[in-house]
Amino acid sequence: MQAKSFFTDVLHISDMELVQALLNVTEYRHLNKGEMLIREGERQREFVFLVKGILRGFFLDVNGYDITDCLAFRCGTPAMSPDSNNAPSQISIEALSDCDLLCVAEDVVEKLMKEYPQLIGIYNAMLRDALKQHWEVKNMVCQHSAMERYLWFCKAYPGLIGQVRNKYIASFLGMTPVTLSRLRRTLREQEQIAEGYTS
Known about the structure:
By secondary structure, the chain is an alpha+beta fold. 48% of the residues lie in helices and 20% in strands. A four-stranded antiparallel sheet has the order 2-6-4-5. A three-stranded antiparallel sheet has the order 1-7-3. A hairpin with a 5-residue loop joins β4 (55-60) and β5.
């Protein structure tokens, strides 16, 4: 996808002067599978948007275990640390597949926001979406059964089963890989029984 199409069709920027201003300062970046976009403790001084691929945000718990905090796969998803004001990032972000990204320096975006009101609206909408997704995940993990969580994941993150390692999905959903494997086996058995009844 061309950067211009990304800004007009994905971010829905209608001000063509703003689009051109962004094109002048946008950097394309490619990450190979396994590469890190940012490591915990580093400072992320740019706005990064996923164009293609799968990213995982994670942190280490008190015992040093790897906890998957978020998964990104939709074109247009911001791929940034939740920290601001150049604070050290509390999470690491890695590529789970080859990824294409568009990056704009944070100070440049802040300058453009003062010149183009539409950019402020887009930024605020992204913050609202991120907050909504955050609480949806929290609600699902804390208030629903393991099976409900897995079925929700299949619907909310279509196509990631088989592309993302089970241990990452299990961690994201607040369960063990063993529990996840058992759920998947149970669903396969139910599907086989249903197929037997209909054949």
